[in-house]
């Protein structure tokens, strides 16, 4: 049943550009899809290990800057009068480097910060994101600081026997984001349903019991952080090559909050939760903008979030799934009673 629903959902999303002709709405869908990928990566930590990272946007921004600098090239001075010169490489290589470097950063952050828990871990992740933002803001020779990196090239896909395909149009970028989101979804689903995924859930539900059966806490959580950071880095790379301009504002705390809202509202710990929550809260500002003033938009945004969490406290996907199971169980329990009543009526 889940496979059928997934296939239908992917088919519906793939058909959107066939009937949606408004470039503004298509642009909103593309940026929303990129942040959904980031939300899925955050859900791997928050939903399946129980670790709240409020600095997750750091990996997104690192992926964006690494990919942009790889494809633009740079010439910077190092201590001792040495200059480091990098010639531009194809953007697809930048995407690969974004995944690798973001994952490596996730490894070091996880290795250091998973030795603490709770509020201490949250503080460490926020501090890391702020340090990375300050580096991007002040290392002007490399990142251009507040002036931003501009003219970032679009991703180019090599086609065997057909040359190259440059993904410049919104239609092309929409399908690129959809494919990357699907790959990330399938990767996380495979991971969650593996032995490693069961170890993550075990640590989230009862860490003491998990340790007693031989699960290495630091190793498991660090590996989850690496995969989560790598996926966020891929999302950041897509963002940089689609927007084609990047500045330190990409590390803004509101972007992390947006991802957390997508995960919590959709349902943390569910595969489809970040997708559903992301579509709602990614497109809600677009729907409210023509009919409300900016201040009223934020009030409505918060009101919708509170309404969802009040009516569906576990998030949209888990709560609706739980109600569906209860309804089916109730129907199954009432079926023998109905048959008995029918038989009694026939005998009478």
How would you characterize the overall build of this protein?
The chain is mainly α and 348 residues long. It has a domain at 22-252. Helices cover 72% and strands 6% of the residues. The chain has 14 helices and six strands. The strands form three sheets. The protein has a two-stranded antiparallel ribbon. Strand 1 (74-78) and strand 2 form a beta hairpin. Helix 2 runs antiparallel to helix 10 (217-243). The longest helix is centred in the C-terminal third of the chain and has 32 residues, at 316-347. The chain is globular. The model has no long low-confidence stretch (mean pLDDT 88).
SSE blueprint:
Blueprint (H helix, E strand, L loop, with lengths): L1 H18 L3 H24 L10 H16 L1 E5 L3 E5 L4 H23 L5 H20 L1 H4 L5 E2 L5 E4 L3 E4 L3 H23 L2 H11 L1 H6 L4 H27 L1 E2 L6 H14 L6 H16 L5 H18 L4 H32 L1
Antiparallel strand pairs: 1-2, 3-6, 4-5
Helix pairs in contact: 1-7, 2-7, 2-10, 2-11, 2-12, 3-4, 3-5, 3-10, 4-10, 7-10, 8-10, 11-12, 12-13
Order of helices and strands: HHHEEHHHEEEHHHHEHHHH
Structural class: mainly alpha
Number of strands: 6
> Would you identify the regions where 5 or more consecutive residues have pLDDT less than 50?
none
How far from one another are the termini? 41 Å
């Amino acid at each position: 049943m889940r496979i059928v629903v997934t296939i239908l959902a992917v088919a519906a999303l793939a058909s959107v550009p066939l009937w949606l002709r408004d470039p503004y709405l298509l642009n909103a869908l593309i940026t929303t899809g990129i942040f959904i990928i980031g939300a899925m990566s955050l859900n791997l930590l928050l939903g399946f290990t129980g670790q709240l990272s409020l600095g997750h946007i750091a990996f997104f921004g690192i992926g964006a800057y690494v990919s942009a600098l790889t494809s633009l090239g740079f010439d910077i001075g190092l201590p001792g009068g040495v200059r480091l010169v990098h010639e531009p490489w194809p953007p697809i290589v930048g995407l690969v480097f974004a995944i690798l470097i973001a994952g490596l950063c996730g490894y070091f952050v996880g290795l250091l910060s998973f030795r603490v828990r709770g509020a201490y871990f949250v503080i460490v992740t926020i501090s890391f994101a702020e340090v990375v933002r300050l580096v991007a803001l002040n290392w002007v020779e490399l990142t251009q600081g507040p002036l931003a990196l501009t003219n970032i090239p679009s991703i180019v896909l090599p086609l065997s026997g057909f040359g190259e395909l440059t993904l410049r149009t919104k239609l092309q970028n929409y399908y690129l984001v959809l494919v990357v989101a699907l790959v990330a979804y399938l990767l996380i689903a495979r991971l969650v349903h593996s032995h490693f995924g069961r170890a993550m859930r075990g640590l989230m539900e009862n860490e003491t019991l998990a340790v007693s059966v031989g699960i290495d806490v630091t190793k498991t959580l660090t590996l989850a952080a690496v995969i989560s950071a790598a996926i966020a880095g891929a999302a950041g790379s897509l963002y940089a090559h689609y927007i084609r301009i990047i500045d330190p504002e990409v590390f803004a705390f509101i972007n992390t909050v947006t991802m957390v809202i997508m995960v919590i509202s959709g349902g943390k710990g569910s595969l489809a939760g970040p997708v559903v929550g992301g579509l709602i809260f990614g497109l809600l500002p677009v729907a409210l903008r023509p009919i409300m003033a900016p201040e009223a938009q934020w009030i409505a945004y918060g009101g919708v979030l509170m309404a969802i969490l009040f009516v569906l406290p576990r998030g949209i996907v888990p709560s609706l799934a739980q109600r569906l199971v209860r309804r089916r169980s109730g129907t199954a329990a009432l079926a023998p009673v109905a048959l008995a009543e029918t038989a009694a009526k026939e005998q009478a």
